[in-house]
Design brief:
The complex is a heterodimer of chains A (about 160) and B (about 160). Chain A is α+β, with helices and mostly antiparallel strands. Chain A has two helices and eleven strands; from the N terminus they run ααβββββββββββ. A seven-stranded antiparallel β-sheet of chain A has the order 1-2-11-3-4-9-10. Chain A has a four-stranded antiparallel β-sheet with strand order 7-6-5-8, with no helix packed on it. Chain B has helices at about 5-25, 25-45, 55-60, 80-90, 95; strands at about 65-70, 80, 100-110, 115-130, 135-150, 150-160. Classes of the chains: A alpha+beta (about 160), B alpha+beta (about 160). The interface of A and B includes residues 76, 78, 152 and 156 of A.
Amino acid sequence: MTDLRRIVFGSHPRRTAVRILVLAAISFVTFRWVLIPVRTQGISMQPTYESGVLEFVNRLAYIRRPPGRGDVVAIRLAGPHVVYVKRIIALPGERVQIVHGQVLINGAPLDEPYVRNRRPWDVPEVALTHAEYYVIGDNRGMRASDHDFGRVEATRILGRIMF
Amino acid sequence: MSTRSRLGAVAVVAVCAFVAWRAWPSNDEQVIRRRLDALTADLNMTVAQGSSTLARAADIGSYFADDVVVDLGEGAAPIVGRATLVGMASRLERRTSAFRLRFDDVGIRLGPGATTADVTLTASFVQRNGVDGAESMDAREFTLALVKASGVWRITRVAAVDTLK
């Protein structure tokens, strides 16, 4: 019994208790405010992210630098518990357009190696304000009408998807 | 215990009490949350689990004001009036039984006198595939306006928010 107690609580139970509390507090803070776990649902980010996969949103990613083109980000709806996961393709102040599936930024074609299948989507040119990004999923093989994409306010971007 | 320790303990208790007081939802907020929970429970209830289609539609209608306006956006014409909404709910019974609705991130801001409230929330629609049972989810953000009349909170306006424009 004494050996079992020592294995469970260690030779210094108080220190063990303090360690457990500190570990619990660090885990709570980390997974609530720093690395938020999200489970992807849907096919709009295929093939980069499959539906049902657990990802982590790094909320500290944009403290030192603003979001960049190609970043996969989490976008909040009413709050942080349900988010869109999309890729940034255009930055504030830019013009974006899709012609027969090809994305044009300020009139120049955008190289998108992460896109495997492309349907001939056509989206009229949009000029972004200085507080907006343009986000879209990697799966362009689906119908545009089934795909949520477009302009998003910078304040809605929660963080960057880690992996 | 020294005087300094006592003062420290009192300060900690005071800070905790202040934080709890600020974070604790008011009675009306709790009532609105319970009402929204009850609405989702009623919407998720199938006819087989409870009352008839018409009774269920009437139950759902009781959460809305007579002159409610539901604007789902995306070019759809707004649904105006509780009677219209109840009629649509009863006709949609077969389709909605395959859905499960959930409200997340419910934020409530009470108006002056706590007789009106603005609510923001994310509505998640989980649909089960009848063939393999796989679930797919669609989520949309909504704003709601509520009014308290005769002690009952009712929804007067529902508007979809375009998160991506």
